[in-house]
Amino acid sequence: MDVKEATIANLKQMDVGNKFSYLPMLPKASVLIPLFVKKGELYTLMTLRSQQSLQLKTSAGEVCFPGGKRDPSDTDDVDTALREAQEEIGLPPAAVQVVCRLFPIINKSGLLVTPVVGFIEESFCPCPNPAEVSAIFTVPLDFFTSKKNHDAAHAAVGTLGPLHSFHFLDPDSGNQYHIWGLTAMLAILVAALALRKQPDFEVGFDCEDPLSFFQQILHKRMNKL
């Protein structure tokens, strides 16, 4: 198998499908974690949220994956992730090969966020919506398994383990980006699952069986609502 085929096989094992449809009605959101292969290596695409956007009060100026809140017109979590990616970075839904949905996580704003992982072409040329996105950059997925540019702090009880933080120097633009919080956790998770690689640092969950950890955290948060 080539890199893409092996990655898809690894990630599909963690596809939750509609397993969490029993959860009570919470405000929902989805993020798209776009992957692509470049010179035999896996990369992901990330965005820097616009500082000016009034719609992005909780994440303005932060590094995020493309995504946002569920619209009434969205049929499911995948629909939300693809629509938001098209609105934010000009990625056509037809240009995404959806691989899996990962377990939902309640974020700091109380939204039930479902990560959707999909492959895009290396040749994709993003067109950022300036009202929502101020920069788009790509990161080797392996970056999120190395302790070289990683820091962690103890998080509050009931949250997603350590509060992870990375500083990434983009070789294309020369800009440095701070990747932290839920976005960092999702990047670590997808890197560990896709690459079948244990990160060089303590992640706070079992990379072989992350589902049980995230289910436990989810139910703890749900019980406090």
Question: Can you walk me through this structure?
Answer:
The protein is of the alpha+beta class. It is built from four helices and eleven strands, in the order αββββαβββββββαα. The protein has helices at residues 3-12, 77-89, 181-195, 210-223; strands spanning 28-38, 41-49, 63-64, 67-69, 97-101, 105-106, 112-119, 133-140, 150-153, 163-169, 176-180. Strands 1, 2, 3, 4, 5, 6, 7 and 8 form an eight-stranded mixed β-sheet that branches. Strands 9-10-11 form a three-stranded antiparallel β-sheet. It starts with a helix and ends with a helix. The model has no long low-confidence stretch (mean pLDDT 89).
What radius of gyration results from the CA coordinates? 16 Å
Percent of sequence in beta strands = 25-35%
Overall pLDDT metric = 89
Q: How are helices and strands ordered from N to C?
A: HEEEEHEEEEEEEHH
Question: In which range does the helix fraction lie?
Answer: 10-25%
